[in-house]
């Protein structure tokens, strides 16, 4: 009994430290943004990466720390460079996603949050070099901490995604982008955490309807929480801290480990002037489109080409 009590206490202390470390990295990013007086330094996906690595200890991420630095940095430069091109917003988004999927496929490393660092400079129309510096610095810090403390040393199988999956997912997103472009819904072209979750879904052997509905609900509610926190709190550090605490409690209540929820709650900070209810509706619509497309495509593939997976 005494051993169990001591063991539980040790686990609790480690968990507190994990949350403290993840929160501290997010607040450090906020301090850098305040020092530089540049909101584009705030990387919502850093919150997701921190939660995934430190709190949830996602094995496939922690097994290869250098990729936590390399892949987001490459995609950030991709997105930043593509944003400088004189082409439509829809074409920029499609182009950067195509390049990111090719990067994942040929590198045989799939770090879904790296999609967000590629999309972010485009959807925010970022022209600040501090965005690139922020991505390089904080993903390097993240990778260093994972290397020193969170890498277990165990060999973990890489998340290999077949080319057909990338092709199917890119096709789904292209249809959605085309729909938004031709109907002038530019504000719904891409919401990075939704794209990230969609790739994670479609990469699995099957997609079940209940998890799809649950993930949609968690993302929509998290976006609503983040939107109202940013609306009513003016201090950036306090916004980041309250967001982190509230989303952590929210996910704990539902017993869910969903790192992108942290990112979507911070997204209103960089999107600016987004009315919380409207933003939550945009998240809901794109979830329905992207997750619905992924669900149908996986269902059809398993029915006609891989029936033993059903």
Low-confidence stretches: none
> What Rg, in angstroms, do the CA atoms define?
19 Å
Q: What structural class results from the helix and strand content?
A: mainly alpha
Note the main sheet. none
What's the pLDDT, averaged over the residues? 90
Q: What is the H/E order?
A: HHHHHHHHHHHHH
Q: Helix fraction?
A: over 70%
Shape: globular
Beta content comes to under 5%
The total count of strands amounts to 0
Number of helices: 13
Give the termini distance in whole angstroms.
Answer: 45 Å
Describe the SSE topology.
Blueprint: H1 2-36, H2 44-55, H3 59-62, H4 65-83, H5 89-107, H6 114-123, H7 129-150, H8 163-182, H9 192-202, H10 209-232, H11 236-253, H12 260-271, H13 276-304
What does this structure look like?
- The chain has 13 helices and no strands.
- It is mainly α.
- Helix 6 packs antiparallel against helix 9.
- The radius of gyration is 19 Å and the shape is globular.
- The mean pLDDT is 90.
């Amino acid at each position: 009994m005494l051993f169990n009590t001591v063991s539980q206490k040790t686990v609790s202390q480690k968990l507190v430290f994990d949350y403290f470390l993840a929160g501290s990295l997010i607040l450090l990013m906020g301090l850098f943004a305040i020092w530089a007086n540049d909101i584009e330094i705030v990387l919502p996906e850093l919150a997701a990466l921190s939660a995934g690595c430190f709190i949830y200890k996602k094995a496939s991420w922690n097994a290869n720390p250098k990729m936590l630095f390399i892949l987001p940095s490459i995609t950030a430069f991709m997105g930043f460079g593509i944003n400088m091109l004189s082409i439509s917003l829809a074409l920029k988004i499609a182009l950067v996603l195509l390049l990111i999927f090719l990067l994942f496929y040929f590198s045989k490393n799939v770090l879904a949050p790296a999609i967000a660092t590629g999309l972010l400079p485009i959807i925010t129309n970022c022209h600040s070099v501090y965005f690139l510096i922020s991505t390089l610095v904080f993903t390097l810090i993240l990778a260093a901490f994972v290397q020193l403390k969170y890498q277990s040393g165990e060999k973990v199988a890489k998340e290999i995604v077949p080319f057909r999956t990338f092709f199917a997912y890119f096709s789904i997103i292209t249809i959605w982008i085309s729909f938004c472009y031709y109907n002038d819904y530019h504000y719904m072209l891409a919401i990075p955490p939704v794209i990230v979750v969609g790739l994670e879904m479609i990469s699995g052997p099957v997609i079940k309807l209940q998890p799809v509905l649950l993930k949609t609900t968690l993302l929509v509610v998290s976006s609503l929480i983040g939107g109202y926190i940013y609306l009513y709190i003016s201090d950036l550090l306090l916004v980041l801290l309250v967001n982190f605490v509230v989303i952590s409690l929210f996910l704990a209540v539902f017993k869910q480990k969903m790192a992108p929820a942290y990112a979507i709650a911070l997204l209103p900070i960089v999107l600016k002037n987004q009315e919380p209810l409207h933003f939550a509706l945009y998240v809901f619509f794109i979830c329905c489109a992207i997750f619905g497309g992924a669900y149908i495509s996986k269902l059809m593939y398993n029915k006609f080409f891989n029936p033993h997976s059903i």
